[in-house]
Design brief:
The chain has 389 residues and is of the alpha/beta class. The chain folds into two domains: 45 residues, no CATH class; 315 residues, TIM Barrel. It has 14 helices and 13 strands. Strand 7, helix 10 and strand 8 form a beta-alpha-beta unit. The longest helix is centred in the C-terminal third of the chain and has 23 residues. The protein is globular and about 50 Å long. The chain binds iron/sulfur cluster. Iron/sulfur cluster binds next to loops.
């Protein structure tokens, strides 16, 4: 018989039903009974949700003022496209010629949106630059983007993250720009510490590039480093995953995000899957349990989400050292805080009074983004004004 730890709880954000119960003041025992009765989830998964939801709740309370918002900026370029990627990102080789035009439009979008939020009396809470790979921009371009964010959304930000997911893109000049603009958190993503797998999945960096980027981040005084790992990459077994986890733990990042391989329709993998061998559900579960065991005790889970076609029906979990959780990740997953998405393939989410959401997304294709940006700024401005009402 197949065991389904998540029972019939489907959807990307499994903490949401638990938050509804916590809003009503249910105790651990009552919430467990309600979740098991309704969804049939296992005690282990409930305990995971309980820990994550209770870590999130102080952050949700702190950010609950409707005049607050967080900014997400999507930089839709990467040095190459990873095998499994479905994110809105273009390989620089294919569409890099649009990069400088994109930066000009983005800066315009940032400053216009800053005018709209200021007029509506809204205040920035956190800022997160992702993509894509923000450090695929030239340092001078990145500096212009960061400076324009600081000027357009003045105030004290609770957190400022820049992803530097592909370690081969981040130079000393990038680190200087990041540091001088007050970025406290960066993400350097090995995914695996095995060169053969990195080559197979189309990433152009080596494990040594990862180690060197993390050491430099420390030397530049970046306070929080996140590292992403993927469990179940093609050709990897439990021993390889354990080696990767050991090497990552040795670098002592404040955050570790444990992803599980998912077959995504918009990925290269989807077209070529016959050529790759993936672990089956029980192998993936074994790897997941092993890494969980390795991080538990030192790190605690603080956000999680599920995906369709994820190996073993498992979940992606963000882990953190105590008091180092990424506020933006919590806010983005829990959807109780306004998020303004700028740049390529970014979604704005405006929370209405009945806690439903109005979503507005920018185009994933940079060429369409460049064409449509004036209409997008205007449409999003209407929602920003509504928040002031
Ligand atoms: S680095 Fe991230 S966004 Fe870029 S291609 Fe790879 S998975 Fe996609």
């Amino acid at each position: 018989m197949t065991v389904k730890p998540w029972g019939n709880l489907v959807g990307v954000r499994p903490t949401k039903p638990l938050h509804s119960l916590l809003d009503r003041g249910l105790s651990y025992e009552d919430a467990l009974e309600a979740m098991q009765g309704r969804y049939g989830i296992s005690r282990d998964k409930f305990d995971l949700l309980w820990q994550v939801a209770n870590t999130a709740r102080p952050v949700l309370a702190e950010s609950s003022d409707p005049a607050l918002f967080s900014v997400y900026v999507g930089i839709p370029f990467c040095p190459s496209r990873c095998l499994y990627c479905s994110f809105p990102s273009h390989s620089l080789t294919d569409l890099g010629k649009y990069r400088s035009q994109f930066v000009e439009s983005l800066i315009h979008e940032i400053s216009e949106t800053g005018r709209q939020t200021a007029a509506a009396g809204m205040r920035p809470f956190t800022v997160y630059i992702g993509g894509g790979t923000p450090t695929a921009l030239e340092p001078e371009e990145l500096n212009r983007v960061l400076t324009s964010l600081r000027e357009s959304f003045p105030g004290v930000w609770r957190e400022f993250t820049v992803e530097a997911g592909r370690p081969e893109t981040i130079t000393d000049d990038h680190f200087q720009v990041i540091k001088q603009n007050g970025v406290e958190r960066i993400s350097i993503n090995p995914q695996t510490m095995h060169s053969s797998t990195l080559a197979l999945i189309g990433r152009k960096h080596s494990p040594d590039d990862v180690i060197s980027a993390v050491k430099k981040a420390r030397n530049y005084g970046i306070e929080i480093v996140n590292m992403d790992v993927i469990i179940g990459l093609p050709g990897e077994d439990a021993g390889m995953v354990e080696e990767t986890a050991n090497q990552i733990l040795a670098l002592q990042p404040e955050n570790i995000t444990m992803h599980v391989f998912a077959r995504k329709r918009a990925s290269r993998f989807n077209d070529q899957q016959i050529a790759y061998s993936l672990p089956d559900a029980s192998e993936a579960t074994e790897m997941h349990s092993k890494v969980t065991e390795m991080v538990n005790g030192t790190y605690q889970p603080y956000y999680l989400y599920r995906q369709r076609d994820i190996l073993g029906g498992l979940e992606n979990i963000g882990y953190t050292l105590p008091d180092h959780q990424c506020l933006y990740n919590i806010l983005m997953i829990e959807e109780r805080h306004n998020i303004i998405g700028l740049g390529g393939g970014a979604t704005s989410k405006f929370v209405t009074q009945d806690v439903s959401l109005t979503n507005i997304s920018t185009p994933k294709d940079v060429r369409i983004y460049l064409e449509r940006i004036p209409q997008l700024i205007e449409r999003r401005g209407v929602e920003i004004i509504k928040q002031a009402d």
